[in-house]
Every structure is written in structure tokens, then in C-alpha cells.
Amino acid sequence: MSTDTLLKERANYKYGFVTSIETDTLPKGLSEETVRAISAKKNEPAFLLEFRLKAYAKFQQMQEPKWANLRYPPIDYQEICYYSAPKKKQSLESLDEVDPEILKTFERLGIPLDEQKRLANVAVDVVFDSVSLGTTFQKTLKEAGVVLCPISEAIHLYPELIEKYLGSVVPAGDNFFAALNSAVFSDGSFVYIPKGVRAPIELSTYFRINDKQSGQFERTLIIAEEDSYVSYLEGCTAPAFDNNQLHAAVVELIALDRAEIKYATVQNWYSGHPETGVGGIFNFVTKRGRCQGYRSKITWSQVEAGAAITWKYPSCILQGDESVGEFYSVALTSGKMQADTGTKMIHLGKNTRSTIVSKGISADCSHNTYRGLVKMGPRAEGARNYTQCDSMLVGNQCSANTFPCIEVAHETGQIEHEASTSKMNEEQLFYLQARGIAREDAINLIVSGFCKDVIRELPLEFAVEAQKLLALKLENSVG
Amino acid sequence: MMLRIKELQALIDGKAILKGFDLHVRKGEIHAIMGPNGAGKSTLARVLSGDPTYEVAGGEILFEEQSIVELSPEERSHLGLFMSFQYPVEIPGIGNLQFLHAAHSAQCKAKGQSPLSEAEFDAFLSEKMQLVDVACGFKSRGLNVGFSGGEKKRNEILQMAVLEPKLAILDETDSGLDIDAMRIVAKGVNSLMGPDNALILITHYQRLLDYIRPDFVHVVKEGKIVASGGPELALALEEKGYDWL
After folding, report:
1. Nearest CA among A358, A318, A368 for reference residue A477
2. Model pTM score
3. A450 contacts in B (CB within 8 Å)?
4. Residues 6 or more apart from A163 whose CB is under 8 A from it?
5. Domain-embedded: residue A198
6. A90: which residues sit within 8 A by CB, 6+ positions away?
7. Nearest chain B residue (CA) to A436
């Protein structure tokens, strides 16, 4: 294959198309007026407008963080559009009333929304630019007492839960991007699992940025009451534009006594042109869960395969005694992508345990950084952590870094850290090919072997997809 | 004719390694290729298998009268070509069983047959493992990861047993083996040879040829064959060294 066709194919991001629909959009720019306008469009209660305005005030006093191992041009926050929604009638009775163009979009993305073809055993909430379009499997969820709905609806339906928990794990002033999100977030998902309930199916939100000038600022809040269980998955794609788009999300999880939350992400935002680096999503995300209750458990698993810039550290605050936090991550960078990602495990309670398994794959001219913090507070008697941090290099122009931080304030704390760096090379591929295994399958085998500890943590429906995605991203990077 | 190599020229990084190499191999024949370091023996094995790091600059390779120069390594493997690597690579995270099953399935698919199920393959593999005398634990270990030199070579012969190639090229399979391991490997190879197969043995030493009897011995120097003969040629070389030629 010639270099030209190769590059053309690489640039050919499968999800890079744009859907033409009528939108209701706020003019570009950020001011107190913007914040008020968003709140007004959503007809929000006073407490929420106040939350937003406080966050905006904090945002104005904050500086964009510069400590990450990332290089990118300055972001002009006045050039971004903070609200864009497909025009629609007052409110939708069901997903069948969604603009057919949008339904087609999701069909092309492999997320069929109509009742006949929807994903088996997964309830999907879809967020298109700034707003949620609807949720499948509502009946099944209702019968179980599980709530999965757009957060903009939850604000009206469950205001007391929102007021109690919004910003309780990631405070509005937590960091620059969280403050921005708190001021302008437009939609996202809300999940509530009542006491003693196991969510009967997988819950999922699919995020799609469509508009060229829009940023996406979604907010997700998951509350798992005592003895409940939920597994949740988010997926993301965006069209291939030549400008950079900002995605600054906040996700908060709360697990009460003996509750368990599994949160999985398959992130495949447009990552920019592989050769020139033009375009792509800037992905600045704050995800944090609080294991508030005794023996509660939160598991983050993520496959980060897209975005030009990724800045993201899904974390766990292990507050309840004997609570458990887990982080399983595959971060793949290719082309000119840069990722600075990892986790924080904050052990506060007694006998708390955490596991970190991070697999970084860097190819082409990309940069991949793992950054982690394991902190054990003075009350965290008997806390334990196990960290495994592996990097794989593909080619010789990429880089991989790891910055693990460990702070232990109790003498009984136990920490294990393992790390390795390996290289996927032509000889490995040749060996497998010489045994009759096609090149793509050979890459797939090597990558899935490297990532298997993480992939097996993903919900079954998405594990295969995630593996294919990784193989696809690497296909032309080797050799 | 199974393999016909004509005037083969091959380069690596622009440097000529094979300089007009000729070889004919018929069904049922065993050819030994000997020669000093750097003569181009391993290059021959890798060029035959389709290693993309080598460039074929001239000549022809016909496998069962079909030119294979343009074919990918996997396509050559599907035609029935096999190379036992001099230095088998380690690939962490892939189980030996998983790898062998993937390779076997790929061969089946290429032949238009349906692949064996995992259970069927497991039984098939157990049978083959007896040939090369490897323990059961072999299946669950990572592909060559942490294997001793001898285990890696036995794993190569196990792969050969599983894939049942028409033509096998063993690239210094004897290097790094003690005498017992060499006997086991030779026994395995001999049991896989039949009137419809052929074998090219690349080796430095005569001793492997005591266990696998070649029909022809060729001496390679500076990228081409400089002498050919029967097994007696190998004995003469052992005695007099390569400079004798």
C-alpha cells in the first residue's frame, strides 16, 4: 500500500461524518449571561442557577492547569459555543419522535435506538451535542425502580437528590475544567439505584458531538443506595473537523453501604489528522467516585482510544471502612495524540483496598503518560494497594511516561507497584504471520494479550468492540 | 518439483546477502544447508518465509511451480511453507494454546475447512505434544515467555506438527540444544517427514545430521551455493572446515 493511500485510510475515521439538522444554539462566548441563559433554557430551579453562578465565579479566578505532560495551543474560551441542541417539539413521548436524521446518525454509529433493533440487554441514554435525546428500555428500568434519565430531567423530577449530591464528590471549584463544567453543563445522565436493587440490565449513555463550534460539557451523577448494584457504560464519538473541540465533563459516583458501581468508558472521540495533528477533541474530564459506605465498591474501567488530548484521572475516595476501589485502563495513542491519564486512590477508611491496572500503548508520534496517586490517610489502618503499570511502544517515535505518586500516613499501609515497558515489533508480527495468522489478527492478538486484564473488566457486549477498536487504531502504525 | 529457487538475490538495508542462489527441492527430500557465519543461510530461510525486512532484488522462488515472491508470510504459510525460527520471539499475554489454535484455525480457513472447536483442538494438540515430548503445562504458558532455549525449539517443532507443512525450513534448530533435547527434536522432525514432505535443514554442525539424515548437503558461502553433495560432504566439512572449499 502506498503511503498516500495509507494516510488516507488512517484519516478515515469511521465516525467522522456530520449530521445536518436544525439546531437551537447560543452565540459563542462565555459570560455570566451565558450561564444564566443555559439555566433559563432548561427552566432550572434557583438552587441550580446559584450552583452554576458560584462555579462561574470560581472559574474566573482559576488558571488552566499546566502540570500535565501535554502540549497544545491555548484554548480560546470565548470562541466556543456553550449550548447547542437539536430543534425539537416541546417534549418527546418516545425515541420514535427523534429527528430521523439523528436516528440515522446513531444507526451509523452502531447504536440503533428504535425498539426493534436496540442493543440487547443494554438501556441506552443518548446525548447529542448538548442534550439528551431519550432512553431505551424505560419500562424494564421502571419495573425495577431504577432511574436512568437525562440529568436535565432529573433536576425537575428529583430535585432533592440533585441538590444533595451534585458537586458533593467533585466540588464546583475542584479544578479549572470542573469549574467550567459546573457553570455551563448542559446535559448528561442521572442514575439512581434504590436500596437493595440490582440494576437488571447494563445502563449506558452514548455521547455524540455533532456541531462544529460546540463544546460538550456533560454531567453524570450516579447514586447507588445501600446494597445496590449497577453497571454503567459510556461511549463517545465526534465528527472529524479541522478545529479542536473542547469536551469537559464531570462524572460523580456515590456508593453507600455495600453498594457496587461499575463504570466503563469506551472513548473514541475524533483524534485529529494522524499526520498533521489538525483537529480533534480536547478531552479534559474529571471523574471521581466516593465509596461512602461500609464495604462499598467502585470500579472504573476505561478504554481511551480517541481524542487529540486526553486529561483524565478517574479516582476513588475510599471513605467507608473496607471499601474497595479499582481502576482498569487501556490508553492508546497513535498519530499525534497525547494522553495524560491515570487515577487517584484516596484511602481514608480502615482496611480499604485498591487495585490499579494501567496499560498504555503508544504508536506513531504520540505521547502517553500514566499519572497516579495512591494516598493513605492517618486513619486508613490496614489499607492496601496493588498497582500494575505497563507500557507498550509501537515504533520508535512515540514516548511513554509513568509518574506514580505514593503517600502513606499510616504505618500499616501496604503498597505494591509493578511496572514494565515492552515493544511491539515487526519480529513478533512476522512470527505470527509466518504461522498463517493474518497481519490484522496478529496485531489483535498481541494487543488483546497486552490488555486482557483490562478488557475482561468491560461489560461483555463491549469487550469485543473495544478490542476491535484498539486493533483498528494500530493497524497501520506497526511497520 | 516442490521448491525451485533461481538466481535469487536478496538485500537487507541495501546490502546484498544472497547473490544468485539456486536450489531445487523435490518431494520426500531432505536438504542440509551448511556454511560459515554470515554466508546467508538464515537470510535464505527468512526470504523464503516472506520476512518484509528483506528485499528480493532479483531471481525467482517457485513453490509447487507458483511464484511466491509477492506473497505475504501468512499466504506462504497457507500454501504449506513453514520456518522454525532460530530465535523464537516471546509474546506476553498470549497463551500457547490460544496461539496454536489461532494459527491452526487460520490454516483451516485458508483451505476452506471449518476450524476445530476449542475442545477438539485441545485433544488434537495433546496428541501432537507427545511427538515432541512436552508436558501438559505447555498449553497454558505464555507464548515462549520464560521458555528455556530447548523449550523454545521444541515449541517450534510442536508448531510444525500442528501445522503439517509441505516444506519445513529449520533454521539452526540444533543451536543451543543439549544432546538429549536434540534427539527429541530430531525424533519429532523425522516422524513428521513423509514421501510428500520436504525439509531444508540449516545448520552449522554435522551432529544434527547424525539424527536427521539428509539426501543432499549444500555449502553456502557469500550468498550462494559453492558445493553440493551427499551426506559425505558434511563429514568432510566437519574434518577440514569451510576454508577447505
Report:
1. A368
2. 0.82
3. 92-93
4. A47
5. yes
6. none
7. B74
pLDDT of residue A276: 86
Segment A248-291, tens digit of pLDDT: 999 999 999 999 999 998 888 888 888 888 888 899 999 999 99
pLDDT digits (tens, 9 = 90+) for A6-36: 444 444 566 666 666 666 778 888 999 999 9
End-to-end CA distance of chain A: 12
> Which conformational region is residue A465 in: left (phi greater than 0), alpha (psi within -120 to 50 degrees), or beta?
alpha
Ramachandran class of A455: left when φ > 0, alpha when ψ lies in -120 to 50, beta otherwise: alpha
The β-bridge relationship of strands A280-291 and A309-312 is parallel
Number of other residues whose CB lies within 10 A of the CB of residue A180: 27
A117 pLDDT above the threshold of 60: no
Cell of B193: 517427514
Q: Which residues pair with B16 in a beta bridge?
A: B11
Of A426, A437, A445, the CB nearest to B74: A437
Three-state SS at A58: helix
DSSP B66: E
Residue A154 is assigned to a structural domain of this protein:
yes
Which domains does chain B carry?
Answer: 3-244 (3.40.50.300)
**Do residues A106 and A126 lie in contact, with contact meaning Cβ atoms separated by under 8 Å?**
yes
Full residue range of the structural domain in which residue A82 is found? 33-312
Cα A150 to Cα A88: distance, rounded to the nearest angstrom: 16
Answer yes or no: is A160 within a domain: yes
H/E element holding A57?
Answer: helix A46-61
Grid cell locating A146? 431504577
How would you classify the pairing of strands A244-247 and A260-267?
unpaired
Element of type H or E holding A322: none
CB within 8 Å of A464: residues ≥ 6 apart? none
The interface pTM score, or ipTM, of the predicted complex is: 0.96
Interface probe for A, chosen from B42, B74, B90, B163 (most Cβ of A below 10 Å), is B74
How many Cβ atoms are within 10 Å of B75's Cβ, its own excluded?
A: 16
* Euclidean distance between CA atoms A314 and A292, whole angstroms: 16
- Give the HSE-up count for residue A340: Cα atoms under 13 Å, Cβ half-sphere: 14
Locate the DSSP E strands across A238-337: 244-247, 250-255, 260-267, 280-291, 297-304, 309-312, 315-318, 324-333
**Chain-chain contact of A430 with B72 (C-beta, under 8 angstroms):** no
Give the integer Cα–Cα distance in Å for B224 and B245. Answer: 13
The grid coordinates listed for A351 are 482496611
Alpha carbon A30 to its chain's center? 24
- Rounded CA-CA distance A172/B144 in Å is 52
Tell me how many domains chain A contains.
Answer: 1
| pLDDT of B103 over the 80 cut | yes
Provide φ and ψ at A362, rounded to 5°: -115, 135
Domain assignment present for A74 = yes
**Which of B50, B82, B103 is opposite residue A437, by nearest beta carbon?**
B103
What are the DSSP calls for B77-90, one per residue?
HHHTEEEE-SSPPP
The verdict on a CB contact (< 8 Å) between B83 and A437 is no
Beta strands at A280-291 and A315-318: parallel, antiparallel or unpaired: parallel
CA-CA distance, B209 to B212, in Å (whole number)?
5
Between residues 417 and 436 of chain A, which touch chain B (CB distance below 8 Å)? 422, 426-428, 430-436
Q: C-alpha distances in angstroms, A180 versus A171, A226, A290?
A: 12, 32, 21
Please say whether the beta carbons of A344 and A314 come within 8 A.
no
What is the secondary structure of A381-436 as a DSSP string? Answer: TT-EEEEEEEEEEESSS-EEEEEEEEEE-STT-EEEEEEEEEEE-HHHHHHHHHTT
Closest C-alpha among A165, A219, A156 to residue A192? A165
Query: Nearest CB to A446: which of B51, B91, B103?
Result: B91
Check if the beta carbon of residue A201 is closer than 8 Å to that of residue A193: no
Residues found in chain B? 245
The C-alpha cell that represents B70 in the structure block: 509477492
